[in-house]
Amino acid sequence: MTASVRRALAYVLLVGLSVAVLVPFAWMVSSSLKLDAEVFSVPVRWIPVEFHWSNFVTIWERVPLLTYLRNSVFLSVTITALQVLTGSFAAYGFAKVRFPGRDVLFLAYIGTIAVPWQAYMVPQYVIMEKAGLVNTHLSLILLQAFSAFGVFLMRQYYLTIPDELSEAARLDGLSEYGIWARIILPLSKPALASLALLTFVNTWNDYMGPFIYLTDNKLWTIQLGLRSFVGLYDAEYAMIMTGSVLSVLPILVIFLLGQKYFVRGIATSGLK
Amino acid sequence: MSAPAQAPATRRRSRSRTWIGWSFILPNFLGFAALTLIPVIASLALSFLDWDSYSTPRWVGLDNFERMIHNDNFWTALRNTAYYAVGHVPLTLAAALGFAVLLNQKLKGVRFFRTALFFPYITSLVAVAVVWNMLLSPDLGPVNQFLRAIGIDNPPGWTTSTTWAMPAVIVASVWRDLGYYMILYLAGLQTIPAELYEAAEVDGATGWQRFRYITLPGLRPTTFFVLIMLTISSFKVFDLIQVMTEGGPGRATLVLSQVIYREGIVQGRFGYSSAVSMVLFVIVLTITIVQFRLQKRNET
C-alpha cells in the first residue's frame, strides 16, 4: 500500500518536473508557428490560434539560411571525419603498440584536456593570424579536428579489447596497420559512433569558434546566422523562434537515431 | 643463440616498433602539437611579455599581473565568475542527482524522460539563450506572468536588471546542464549493489535512510567527479553569457573568459590577456587539486 503510494508520488513528481524542463521547447515550437504580435500574449497561449506554417517558408527568404546550413554541415562533417580517423589511428598507437616515450606523450595529451580552452585561445589566435587563416573554414577545421578528447575516448575503448586478438593477427602475418583496419576498427564501432556523434553535435552547436574566427557572412554557420538575425530583428519574435527550431531540428534527428551511443560515450568519458 | 647476438636484433625490433607507434600517432599529433600543445605552453610565456598586436614582444616580468590586480574589470569579472559558480554548481548537482534517483526506479516511460531531460544539453546554445531571454522577458514573458499569477506583484526584471541578470543566466545554465550530469549519476547508481537496498528494507530502513546511508555514500566517486567537472565548467563559462547578456547589463554578468576574449582577441593585447588566462588556469587547477586531496582524505 505505502509502496504503491510512494510509486505514484514519484511518478507525479517525475512527470511534473519533466514537463517543467520541456516548457522552453514547447514555447519555442508554439511561438515559431505564431505571428509576431501573438508571441507575448496574456495569458500565455501554448497552442497557436492559427498555425502559421508559412513562417517556415518565409525564413528562407529573410536570411541566407541555405548558406549557413551548408557551412555548418561542411564543417561538422569534415571535422568529425578527421577527428574519428586520426583519433582512432592515434589511439591504436597509444593502446596497442609499446614503444619508449609513449606514456609521456599520452600524459601530454591528457594534461591539455585539463587546461581550459580559454587559457590558450589567444596564442591559438595569434598562430592562425600569422598563418593568414583567420576568416577561413580551414582555421576551424585545424583547431577542432585533432582534439585530445577523441584520442582519449578511443584509447579507453581499445584498452578493453583483449591483446590476444592482435597477437593472433600478428602471428598470421598481418601488419600493425592491417590489425588496426581489419580487427580493431570493426570491433570498436560503438566507440566510433559515440565519438562521431559527440563531435558532430559539438561542432554543429559551437558558437565561440565561428564567432571568433569567421567574420565573412558567406562563411557563417547556422549558429552565427541565428545570433545575427536576433541582433538585427529583435522584435520578430516568431521568426526568431522559427530559426531556432530549424537550428535544433537536425540535432534532434541525430540524437534520436543515435541516443544509445551518446549516453554510452558520456558514461565512458566520465567514469574511466 | 648467445646473448650478445640477440641484443642488436632486439634493439632493431624496438626501433621499428617506435617507428610504427609514432606513425599511428603522428597524423593526430601534428595538429594537436601545433594548435593545442604549443599554445598551452606559449600562453604561459606570453603572460610575461608586453605584446600587443602592433608591437614587438618584450619581456616585462610581472608587469601584466600588476596591471591586472589594479584593474577594476578583472576583479568584477572574477567576482561574477565566482558568483556564477556558487549558483551553478550546487543547483545543477542537486537537480541532476534528484532526476537520476527518480529515473533509477522501475517506472513506465523512464526511457522517454531520460531522453527528454538530456536533450537541453545538446540543444544549440544560441537557441537556448534566445528562448530563455524570451521566457524571462520582464513584462509579458511567461515566467513573470506565472509569478504574477501566484501573487508576486513585482517579479524580477531578469536579464534587464543588474541584480537579476546573473540568476537568470544561472537558471538557463542549470536547465541546460542537468541532463548531462544526470547521465553520469545514472551510471553511478548502477554500481551500487541491489543487495544493500534489500538488506536495508529487511532491517526496516525508511526511504530517506536508504538514500542517506546507501545511495549517497555509494555515489561518492560520481559526486566527486561531477563536482570537479561542474566547477571547472563554471569557471570556463562563456558562450551562454555572451549570447544571453553579453556581460551586461553594465558589467553585471561579465566573466573572466569574456575579459580574456575582449582583451586578447578584440583589443589584441596578447600579453595582458594571457596573464588573465593564467589566473583562470590556476583557479581551475587549484580546485581540481583541492578536491582530489579532500577525496583522498575521505577515503582513508
From TrEMBL, chain A:
Any one GO cellular component localisation term in the record: plasma membrane
Residue span(s) of domain ABC transmembrane type-1: 69-258
UniProt keyword Chaperone, yes or no: no
Record-linked Gene3D superfamilies: MetI-like
Keyword Glycosyltransferase: no
Protein localization: Cell membrane
Pfam families recorded: BPD_transp_1 (PF00528)
Record key words, sorted: Cell membrane, Membrane, Transmembrane, Transmembrane helix, Transport
Residue stretches spanning the membrane: 9-29, 73-94, 106-126, 138-158, 179-201, 237-257
Membrane topology listed for this record: Multi-pass membrane protein
Family: Belongs to the binding-protein-dependent transport system permease family.
Name of the protein this chain belongs to: Carbohydrate ABC transporter permease
Species whose genome carries this gene: Kribbella albertanoniae
TrEMBL record, chain B:
One GO CC annotation: plasma membrane
Annotated localization: Cell membrane
Pfam families in alphabetical order: BPD_transp_1
Source superkingdom: Bacteria
A biological process term (GO) from this entry: transmembrane transport
Membrane-topology annotation of the record: Multi-pass membrane protein
Domain ABC transmembrane type-1 as annotated: residue spans: 78-291
The keyword Oxidoreductase belongs to this UniProt entry's keyword annotation: no
PROSITE patterns per record: ABC_TM1
Membrane-crossing segments per the record: 20-49, 82-103, 115-136, 218-238, 270-290
Assigned protein family: Belongs to the binding-protein-dependent transport system permease family.
Name the record gives this protein: Sugar ABC transporter permease
The species this protein was found in: Kribbella albertanoniae
